[in-house]
Amino acid sequence: xxxxxxxIIIQFLSTILxxxxxxxxxxxTINSNPLKSICVPFLNCYACPxxxxxxxxxxxxxxITLHQIPYFLIxxxxxxxxxxxxxxxxxxxxxxFIQDLLFKIKSxxxxxxxxxxYIKYAVFIVFVIMLPYYTGDLWFSILCPAGKLIAGIxxxxxxxxxxxxxxxxLPDGPGFIFYFSILIxxxxxxxxxVCKRPFCRTVCPVGTFFSFFNSISLIKLELTGNCxxxxxxxxxxxxxxxxxxxxxxxECIRCLECTKCDNIKVKKNFNQFFRLKEDV
Length: 280
Known about the structure:
By secondary structure, the chain is mainly alpha-helical. Helix content is 52%, strand content 4%. Strands 1-2 form a two-stranded antiparallel ribbon. 36% of the residues are buried.
């Protein structure tokens, strides 16, 4: 089995596992069992009818609207970042999986301006932190195209009746914000066809958080030979990186596709980590 096929299988299984709750079809309400207190290390909308776990960004915003710091969430995500950096983006994220699949559609392809990568830091500060803090609303979740695709649209199409009142959950239908966010989602879906992972590169707050750990994570990439400028790494990279120059940058999602070039290998620092613990 090739690395690419293995990654596709794992991404698919991650998508199914994180959205394998069927109880909502009987209760007509969002899953609220104990597993919902656990966050997955990728975007997975809390409001999805079949969501088994929570989204770290939705959870983060929830605490910020209460003017509290989510210490446990930061620690949990930080531990993942320290061990594998941004690897969850490349191997587990359902929305990343969708982007990879749509880019396979035959069409004219475009490169994204390098400077666009800085947009995601502004998105994180404004829509994940500042607006929720000052308005009390989960602004990133409201506009999130991933959430709209797996949660907003299914609920609107289904629009079940509340079993306690026997009334529709959305008696007047969705409002302006819903349709506005649908336009955002459609724009991104079209963008996915012509550009490599534009959401991951310009918007995603989960990737933004993990990007700070790539340079210190225990799993890294390294050049083991002289680069002959074959561009195989850039061709295979879903983030369109020139790995020979951007190896271990915050943009790398550790998908390992670049290791198809014999000059790039995975470097594991676990032994060094455990030696440090023993010294302490």
